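Feature request, filed as a ticket because there's no other form

It would be nice if the structure record came with a short human-readable summary line next to the tokens. Right now we just get the raw output. Example of a typical job, pasted below so the devs can see what we mean:
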Amino acid sequence: VEMIPEVEQIFGLPPRTPLPLQELAPMIDILGLRERFQRVNQKLEDSDLEPALPVGTTPIVRVGGGPLEEEPLQRAVLIGVDWNEIAERIAPGTDQAIVFESAIIRQNARQSDYNPDQAQAILAEMGYANGLQLPMLVPEGSQIMEIFAQLLAGNLERIGIFVEFVPVAAPDARLKFEEAASAGQPVILLSRE
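Raw output as currently delivered:
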């Protein structure tokens, strides 16, 4: 766990203990700073600067439907993507988690071992040696989530999973995912919490 550096003493106050970075998001809410951070991030997204993931948010990659209900294919997605590279691009200089979620798995994807060769072998064993095509539901209006989607799609393409971006309104995203998955359509949903 990365910690904010300990401060010895400030103006005669007792020393403070370091604050784990994962506790930063609740502190932002407690201090009433969420709106300010959202405004700053919106200005960043509106500018020509490279956007960054808003402070206090965690990206989530949810997979399901059809063959993506099966654990081996979920594992292929987990190990076939360089999650550390993606995290460094969307939240540079942090230990930003990326949650990988399915009906049977929920974990920080960055803790998986990157092995695209093994991922390709799993796809071939499951009958997808020529690849697998599926939709990726991406929240509308978020430049950083679009960048996240492009990075993820590039990694998936290298192992033989080809995605078509489907923009969705954030409030409808989970429902659209559930509809596709329950109809047997393999689908990936990007969101954040």
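Something like this underneath would help us a lot:
The beta strands are 59-64, 99-101, 106-108, 132-139, 161-168, 187-192.
The mean pLDDT is 81.
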